[in-house]
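User: Fold both of these, please.

Assistant: Here is the first one.
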Amino acid sequence: MGKAGAVPGAAGKHASPDGFRLDINALRALSVIAVVGFHFQIPGFAGGFVGVDVFLVITGYLMTAKVLNELKLGRFSPWTFWMMRMRRIYPALAVLTIASVIAGWFVTLPAEYTRHLLQALSALTFLSNFAFKSDSGYFAMAAQTKPLLHTWSLSLEWQFYFFMPLIVGLVWRLALRAMSGIDAVVVALQVFAALSLAWCLWASQQDATGSSFFSLQARAWEPLAGGLIAAAEIRRRSEGIADPSWLQSPMVAVAGWVLVAGCVVYPLPEARWPGVLTILPILGSAIIIAARQGSREGGLLGASAIQRVGDWSYSIYLWHWPVWVFALSWLSVRGYGVDATQKTLMVLVSLALGAISYRYVEQPFRIRRDFWTPRRLLGSSAVSFALLAGFVSLTFLNKGFPGRLPEYLLPAELARRTSTPRDECFRNANSTKKATETHCRFGSEQAADRPSAILWGDSFANQYLDPVSSAALAHGIHGLIATQNGCRAFIDDAARNAGDERPCREFNRSTLDFVLGRTEPSIVVLGGNWVEATEISVLVDRLLSAGKTVVLILPLLHLGFDLPQRWVENQIRAGRAIDEWKVEAGPVLTRSGLRNEIARVLDKHGGNLRLVTVDPLSVVCEHGYCHLVRNGQANFRDAAHISNVNASQYNGVFGAAFGAALHAGTEADKRTD
């Protein structure tokens, strides 16, 4: 979200049709306040994330107008345009990025720090939207651990700056004689905006991973909406046509402000954004820009406080998110929550840093052009990037410099570093995976005279892959992996599963057809983030009736917090290692309500040897307590999933389960004979 536009200041600029506009600067102020309020979780800003969308409309309007006016004068140069944008955006971004790298040195665990450094490089090359898109899956680190997460919008904006002038310039020059350059540009912008909007609406319904959130393809229509307003204004001016009468009514602009403000206040759904509802803030901001109302210096929008926030908006946006991330880390380590006083302080710090950045970083690079020539600007940027890249390489070689932190924190780092086993075989929410075979394999080699198994479920099934594989190998069982991100196993029913994503429903249908359509696999291992006992019962009934042996993994613990992070905080506060941490096995922690309901619905199968249950709770809980940390190792890698470091402790329960499953199959064969 880079701020675009002329430098505010002299009153004379405000009067020019193409000069500085107070209403747009006020819209910037509203947008950045909305984003800060949303990120800082301040009441009244439930939909504040739309501020980024509003900024995109603003930048599309201003930059398209800049390109078209230069083309009309016959002096447009893409290189000059890009240098103008770089002068505006890069220095403040570079200072913020380097500051976050320095701050991270003192508070960030080694693996997180190396990841942060890679994100810093992507931010300075305007590729962070791609970096965060690839790191937006189920097991991605929480947003509060990514100080540069917000730079995705700057990268997207820069990509717009790269392609837009090239396309507009090409269309202008290739326009047919029957069509003026501006008319051709309007048509081209309309086509690209329509295609982008169509892609956005399609992706919002089809892309279960949410990766379109970071995509230029899905968001290009937002700055193009502003670009179309600029093109229409320039065309009318060229033809001597006045603005439409309806635009000249102050109530039109008021309607735009009300619409944008309403979107900021209303709790719009973040899921599937951008999507159809994104049209609302885009429409509101487009109306404000097109109406050109409220630019008088004596009006409300010209108030000094509003205009100052608008001036500082880019730098405020840059600094507010790292302030939030590092402040949360500092407060958490010391056992503090975040109340209204602390949020107020964070807002004031963000404003202060934004003002300082504007005054001492943004302005000198924009005003002192005699010193900061394009060569010096590019040279200093290249040197800064090269130094950072060298430091990143050194950090990787030293595995994040673990020596800068107390040694007793490293086991928590190890637990968090591990992800889901056999990640190449674990399908994402769109049901795709890196491995090419339909089902990856585990356990022993496939043999005609030995039964085979299939592990079916979501990440809560896949987390046990290592002990399941070890147990299968020990019993000579060949296994297949059918696990998908956020997709527990269930029998698809249009009414019951209407809220589940289509790829998940299709995955479960195809897996069920595969299992029921052949003799092997005869053992079905079910695991999941179970939420409803009846759903489990329906699936188990279907599998048992088909002659399958079911190994059902019961729910583990519901922690409600990130265990490695909390362990780190507790150890820092204690100033020493905490090798053992156990808590009382209460009903919420052990999910006793769900477990009792599962036992009740499956009680009808009490005498059926083909139903085998695995209770991982028995491994970590004993004598009324559950071990979160045991022998200096975390039992969980996040708030719910087991740590791969301690996964081998479940070998015994899965070994017993496979033994019982084989025995059940043998008994069934005897009865058949």
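And the second sequence with its predicted structure:
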Amino acid sequence: MAAPKKGRKAPSGQGKPGRTLAMLLIAMAALVGGMFWSGETTPRLGIDLAGGTTITLKAEPDAGKESAINPTNMNTAVGIIDRRVNGLGVSEAEVQTQGDRNIIVNIPKGTNSEQAQKQVGTTALLYFRPVLAVAAGAPTTPEPAKSGAPSTKPSATPSAKAGNGAPKATTPSGAPSASTQGRAVTDALKAPSPGPSAPAAKPSTVPSGKPGATPSAPPTPSPSDAALQKKFTELNCLVPAQRANVAKGTTDKDTIVACGENGAGQWEKYLLGPAEVDGKDVDSAAGVLDPQRGIWKVTMDFTSAGSKKFAAITGKLSQQQPPMNQFAIVLDNNVVSAPSVSSTLSGSAEITGNFTQQSAQDLGNILSYGALPLTFKTETVTTVSPALGGEQLKAGLLAGAIGLALVVIYLLAYYRGLSIVALLSLLVSGILTYTLMSLLGPAIGFALNLPAVCGAIVAIGITADSFIVYFERIRDEIREGRTLRPAVERAWPRARRTILVSDFVSFLAAAVLFIVTVGKVQGFAFTLGLTTVLDVVVVFFFTKPLMTLLARTKFFASGHPWSGLDPKRLGAKPPLRRTRRTSAPVDPKEA
């Protein structure tokens, strides 16, 4: 019995094209579904297309302190500037680093660009101020204080003593009620300030009595005290615009009203005395893990002058009752922390409390930023009106449509039936590009600007070039006399090498351009690199498998004149056939 013949091995690369196409379509469906699920169904538009202001800031260190420009300090500056921009009531503003010393601030339309430029370009102001009163962040209507009634101080949960005499970073959880808040503020304004440089905790324009002096009768609040009390009671820290402007126009010598978030994420308002220590007095600060207690804390080291100032203020604060035994760490008139003090501190201190690793490191970075020798110079400010942005977007889309139409006309005229493969591949590439651009907006902050649109237009030619390379390789095989199915498989390895080399060069150029440039040019480079990668994906997982399946159809395999693979039109050679040579028989008579 004869053994069955083994089947012929499929040509290299033929595999299972249907399975490959199915995998790609499933991946596409998942990406499109994720786009609709996230709600980001359109790409985010850049300032030049949507309208708004773009500000480029460049970090400049003090002389001899070039090392101050590092990723940690730049990220801290980004966080501070982001809080400033949000304080203007801006929604969807973007603040991000670019390169090693640039910060890009994108502010959408509807914001005063001059005010934004002023806010983001100034150096952060960090102060340590004594706390005089604390209340809930919402506005209240206090009752008038009755004659002879005892004063009611704001209540706060006393903090436990931290190890080594360090202050514990606990924000007071108690707040005065609506009936006592007005009297609490009045008492705070009348009370002697715990600080050494200001004998009374009230605006510097109002004279104060000597510390410890007991007046025979409560003094009548001055107009400045009344105005400050009114501002404190009416302040609503839940409104970003009020938080940003509450201390506008004040100096470090003034008593101010400020807002801050407590450990529970709730807004509280503070009445703060004149600044006793500023950010330049901090030598270094960091959020570290206490190995003995297993908690996160913030350590601070002061300069020689700062150590003396901090010792004086903490010595006074440690003798006060809550909340007047607290000092507020104020950055840009925003209270970032208000730890209590239980003893005199000098040289170094630590702040403990309900810190996570992230919150401890953030506070350490903020404290360090007050001592950083960094200033920011405004490099460029670009403002685009929404109307101009809309016109630029229309012009970019029109240019893309014209370029795509020319490519389609060329493919239809020259490749006929093969143009179906090219058009379907372009469609798949377009869907993937659009979906990824929409998803990358909220994921990494990608915004489609005009140079990015140009990169997408250039990508049409790059993608079409890959199809042309593969089609011409198939035609070359047919010209050599091969039928379509083996021609498709034999042409693929040669076309694959050419496509990979071409796309690698394009991707390398995009990567170099992205690294060495700043600003909007990076949008062009990013889009070009993204579409180049997608070109490889589409050609390998869609164009090649689809071509393998079409080669099995009669329309393409028979070389129909409209298939684009007609052997006669291509000038194909007749197939080479090997014939066995036989010698003529020899006549015995002639032998």
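DSSP finds 16 helices and 13 strands in the chain.
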